[in-house]
Design a protein that fits this description.
Blueprint lengths: L1 H4 L2 H28 L7 H24 L2 H14 L1 H6 L1 H20 L2 H7 L3 H12 L6 H19 L3 E2 L9 H27 L5 H31 L7 H20 L5 H22 L2 E2 L2 H18 L4 H18 L8
Antiparallel strand pairs: 1-2
Helix pairs in contact: 2-6, 2-7, 2-12, 2-13, 3-4, 3-6, 3-11, 3-12, 6-10, 6-11, 7-13, 8-10, 9-14, 13-14
């Protein structure tokens, strides 16, 4: 209730801050957690724990929306049990999100946080391509241009000589890290558009959709955990390497998407682009001090190109023209209705 009473302008700044902190903290936390000294947790189990956390969070949010336990149960029954076909359709994005999250951990373990953050922006390209083919969306010429700039920027970052000047406890493979990030971007683009299509063709809330996703993702992520790390889990335990920071990372991963789902309601494309750009800059700065990251001229220029592409992709060239048309129509309407005494 309090969020509705807040000034929309203040909500925009809160959105900016939340998106920036969330975007930068995920990449930095994943990098630190997967390369620090000491026992390293199994990332596949972290994906499973994140799904449990997301499910519980969404259940609480739906309960708060419904108000009573009776309405809450009825809502879950109608959305999940009665609508079985619709629920089963969510198997596709559920499986994809499980694979994507596992790939992101592989990428974070093999790429420094700054490179990971910049490279993962290729999801803009994959999302745009899937939107064109699956939603028949038409892109502006400026958006196609921004996608080309994005690819050039990421290529410059990947080919730069920059990196972390520190010894890590796990073996690093930059090619594997890039391949994992690229795979995650493709999966993210497809799943995002598929999920958007499902939301547009149904009146279910985003929280209920996430409950459907998590219910299907839980068994899939558990199977993935034992398929990837079954022998290690049997030997060392499911929660091997877990501490307060890993639990924090799980919470960050689980609630990150939910936080974004809330704040983007109050943010436009320019603000989202600004938040993403700030997150990239923040990740680079923190990486210099936390991970001894060496920032080269080529890396910096590539990052600037990626940031420019983000703003350019979010720009709507028809917005100003439409605003002028609306303004002209309003003026004509005022004249017809006698809004200005001098014009009567």
């Amino acid at each position: 209730m309090a969020i509705h009473r807040m000034n929309p302008s203040n909500l925009k700044y809160i959105s900016l801050l939340t998106l920036t902190v969330q975007n930068s903290m995920v990449s930095l936390s994943m990098r630190y957690a997967t390369t620090r000294d000491g026992p390293i947790f199994f990332s596949s189990t972290a994906v499973f724990m994140a799904e449990i956390t997301k499910l519980l969070t969404c259940l609480v949010l739906v309960f708060m929306e419904e108000g009573t336990m009776l309405r809450f149960k009825a809502s879950l029954h109608n959305a999940i049990v009665k609508n079985k076909t619709d629920t089963l359709k969510m198997t596709v994005p559920s499986l994809i999100y499980v694979l994507q999250n596992n790939l992101l951990y592989i990428s974070a373990a093999n790429l420094d946080a700054a490179t990971y953050q910049v490279t993962y922006q290729l999801k803009i390209l994959t999302t745009a391509i899937f939107a064109v083919f699956m939603l028949r969306k038409k892109l502006f010429s400026t958006q196609w241009g921004s996608l080309f700039i994005l690819v050039c920027g990421v290529a410059m970052v990947q080919l730069s000589a920059g990196g972390e000047n520190r010894v890590v406890s796990v073996e690093q493979n930059r090619t594997l890290g890039f391949a994992a990030a690229l795979g995650a971007c493709v999966l993210s683009g497809f799943a995002g558009i598929f999920f958007e299509k499902m939301l547009k063709t149904s009146d279910l809330s985003v929280w209920m959709r996430n409950i459907q996703l998590s219910l299907l993702s839980l068994p899939l992520s558990l199977i993935t955990s034992y398929a990837n790390d079954g022998a290690k889990i049997s030997d060392k335990g499911f929660f091997y390497g877990y501490d307060y920071f890993v639990y924090f990372l799980v919470l960050l991963q689980a609630c990150g998407g939910l936080i974004v789902a809330v704040v983007v309601k109050y943010a436009d494309n320019i603000l989202k682009g600004f938040a993403t750009s700030l997150a990239i800059v923040l990740s680079c700065i923190v990486s210099i001090y936390l991970f001894n990251f060496e920032l080269t001229t080529q890396f910096a220029f590539g990052t600037v190109l990626v940031i420019v592409s983000i703003f350019l992709y979010g720009h709507d060239p028809t917005k100003g023209k439409n605003a002028k048309k609306v303004s002209t129509l309003k003026d004509d309407e005022e004249k017809l209705l006698g809004g200005d005494p001098e014009d009567v």
